[in-house]
Recover the amino acids of this structure.
């Protein structure tokens, strides 16, 4: 036996305490049982969440926070393998308290979730019964929409924010529901939330039927109101369309020096940006530099052969004048200069070609004249030789 082994055995023999070792083993056993109990509790929380989701009693807030709570619990067990019974018990108690807070906030959210439909139903019903004005109905509908918007983001809210929202809704509801004979339905647990939601859904069906029946009943005042509303929408749409066309027309005619595809793009972009383009051309008009208007969208310079064609292409057919030609020449010259080339207008090219043709014709005439002269001389010389020959004979 080595000296080291002998020393280790001696130390263990000297320090060994059976009672202490037994107590330590008992403590470890209790800690292990506490961990297992805590672990089982976390699984039960997940099972509770799953059951509540199936029963439609869980909000997104509840699902998200319970998942985080259980995940944090399992991570804690992994990170604290040597925790004692008291530490584990404290952790389990903290998890239980947090779950209760999440459950309370879930009930509050369930109660708030049914309110948008409740407010709209109450507003429609009270308006049909002439208990509230149209402005009051719009106010109720707007409050319902704002609450519905907040509920979409409630999954990330804190329990304190949810509680504050509940108090705010209660105060506002007392004001908005005056004269309707209704009050905010009380939701104290998940079961009552389901019952309230069902009751609101039944009320919605009833109110919808009443609205349909009311619409089928002739009312002169409603007819005048709906006609006025429709007329305003139609006139407004036509006015917007007119502004689009005017702005597009100004922009397309301002691009008279460009090719057709660019004029079409200018027309579309100018029309879509009419609030800015109309101000721009109004400014130019004020200083006398507004573009000349050829047609709505000038594309063609030759008219169609048929009267029907001329009718349909009238907004797109224009008479090209010198200003349009000059604009084209100016744009093409500037574009050619940018790439280091020279632009020759079609008229100049034609003149050059005609000059070359005239020169060619002049040369041809001179050549034909010379050839004719030479031929004539040859014929005359031949005749003279024949006459001389005949004289000798």
């Amino acid at each position: 036996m080595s000296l080291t082994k002998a020393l280790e055995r001696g130390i263990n023999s000297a320090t060994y305490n059976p009672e202490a070792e037994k107590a330590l083993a008992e403590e470890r056993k209790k800690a292990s049982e506490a961990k297992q109990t805590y672990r089982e509790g976390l699984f039960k929380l997940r099972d509770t969440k799953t059951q509540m989701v199936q029963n439609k009693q869980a909000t997104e807030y509840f699902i998200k926070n319970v998942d985080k709570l259980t995940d944090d619990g399992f991570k804690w067990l992994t990170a604290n393998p040597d925790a004692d019974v008291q530490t584990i018990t404290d952790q389990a108690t903290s998890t239980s308290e947090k779950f209760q807070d999440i459950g309370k906030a879930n009930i509050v959210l369930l109660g708030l979730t049914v309110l948008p439909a409740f407010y709209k139903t109450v507003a429609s019903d009270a308006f049909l019964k002439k208990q509230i004005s149209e402005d009051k109905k719009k106010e109720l509908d707007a409050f319902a929409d704002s609450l519905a918007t907040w509920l979409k983001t409630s999954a990330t809210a804190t329990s304190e924010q949810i509680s504050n929202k509940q108090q705010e809704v209660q105060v506002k509801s007392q004001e908005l529901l005056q004269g309707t004979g209704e009050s905010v339905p009380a939701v104290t647990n998940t079961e009552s939330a389901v019952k309230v939601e069902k009751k609101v859904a039944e009320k919605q069906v009833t109110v919808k039927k009443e609205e349909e029946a009311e619409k089928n009943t002739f009312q002169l005042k409603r007819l005048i109101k709906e006609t006025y509303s429709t007329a305003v929408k139609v006139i407004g749409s036509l006015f917007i369309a007119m502004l689009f066309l005017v702005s597009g027309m100004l922009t397309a005619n301002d691009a008279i020096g460009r090719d057709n595809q660019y004029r079409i793009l200018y027309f579309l972009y100018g029309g879509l940006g009419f609030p800015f383009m109309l101000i721009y051309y109004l400014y130019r008009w004020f200083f006398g530099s507004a573009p000349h208007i050829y047609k709505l969208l000038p594309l063609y310079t030759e008219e169609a052969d048929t009267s029907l064609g001329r009718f349909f292409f009238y907004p797109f057919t224009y008479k090209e004048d010198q200003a349009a030609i000059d604009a084209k020449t100016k744009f093409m010259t500037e574009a050619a200069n940018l790439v280091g080339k020279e632009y020759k207008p079609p008229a100049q090219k034609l003149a050059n070609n005609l000059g070359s043709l005239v020169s060619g014709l002049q040369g041809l005439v001179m050549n034909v004249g010379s050839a004719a002269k030479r031929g004539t001389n040859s014929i005359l010389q031949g005749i003279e030789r024949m006459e001389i020959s005949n004289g000798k004979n």
In short: The two ends are 168 Å apart (CA to CA).
